[in-house]
Task: structure prediction
Amino acid sequence: DAGVTQSPTHLIKTRGQHVTLRCSPISGHKSVSWYQQVLGQGPQFIFQYYEKEERGRGNFPDRFSARQFPNYSSELNVNALLLGDSALYLCASSFSHSGTGELFFGEGSRLTVL
Amino acid sequence: AQTVTQSQPEMSVQEAETVTLSCTYDTSENNYYLFWYKQPPSRQMILVIRQEAYKQQNATENRFSVNFQKAAKSFSLKISDSQLGDTAMYFCAFIGNAGGTSYGKLTFGQGTILTVHP
Result:
């Protein structure tokens, strides 16, 4: 079975641009979470979606938004990119939304903002 | 707010030996879950072991075991018979379960880079 897949794997943007990152969860998983991992630090929670509804939001500005589609895949959008948005963006899926079970992570999308 | 602290930025161990990674956390919740995740270089993060706070027995998964001290808010990971494939960044993580509304919000520590030497 395919694991969590993310695209693109690497991308370079300039300040002020917009980026869209995509995630396909494991088949049967209805929950998708997004995390930002700055180099050398632990992941920081951005969003969680379950059954196409936002169920949790971390301490990130409104430039960050996300959505989940009927097939449970998800997009993370970041507007007006700043240098500080350079990071590895991780998507994780799970069967339930409570987060007390195992999260399955993708390999991430590495964003560089110049 | 919950915090997770890993005070060891880097650790190293010889193959076949035992190593312990430290983690402390702070929370006012009584029911929560603790995790250790492993992130190998350029590969995805995977779950190593999980502990439910209301269970007094320490979790064990093959060569991996935890020492969970609830009163001290400490959650260390012991790796026995270390293997070269254990080389990775290890993250301690916490999730509360206040009425089941934690919604997948894991709080991670800063990570510990573990290197296993042959």
In short: DSSP finds no helices and twelve strands in chain B. Chain B has a mean pLDDT of 92. The interface with chain A takes residues 4, 33, 37, 42-47, 50, 52, 91, 93, 95, 97, 100, 102-111 of chain B (CB under 8 Å).
